[in-house]
């Protein structure tokens, strides 16, 4: 049974703040990569492509964590909480909106082997 958690954290910067938000999010990568449970953690920005015309917030973190508990511990790190307080929750922050969702790769009613 997979215990992995997949997180998609997307961000809508305020007008003219796209580059600043991208750089601010990049500062979170080095320490997060030091967490043993972090399997993948990369901030990306949307680009124009004729084969992918969908709409989304323009900056997205793609995360994979070893387990739900370890993802939740990551979210409680002071650096992460400070980022959200300064950039998302504060009226002076550069981020207009954020959408953070977690996913599993397990199908419903998965018959996981008991070990």
Quote the distance from N terminus to C terminus.
10 Å
Approximately what portion of the residues adopt beta-strand conformation? Answer: 25-35%
Order of helices and strands: EHHEEHHE
User: Per the principal axes of the C-alpha atoms, what is the gross shape?
Assistant: globular
Oligomeric status of the shown chains?
A: single chain
- Residue-averaged pLDDT, rounded? 94
Please describe what this structure looks like.
The protein contains four helices and four strands. It is of the alpha+beta class and 115 residues long. Strands 2-3-1-4 form a four-stranded antiparallel β-sheet. The longest helix is centred in the last third of the chain and has 12 residues. The radius of gyration is 16 Å and the shape is globular.
Give the topology.
Elements: E1 5-13, H1 18-26, H2 29-33, E2 38-45, E3 59-65, H3 68-75, H4 78-89, E4 95-103
Antiparallel strand pairs: 1-3, 1-4, 2-3
List keywords for this structure.
globular; Antibiotic biosynthesis monooxygenase; 115 residues; 30% helix; ABM_dom; monooxygenase; oxidoreductase; Dimeric_a/b-barrel
Summed up:
By secondary structure, the protein is α+β, with helices and mostly antiparallel strands. It has helices at 18-26, 29-33, 68-75, 78-89, and strands at 5-13, 38-45, 59-65, 95-103.
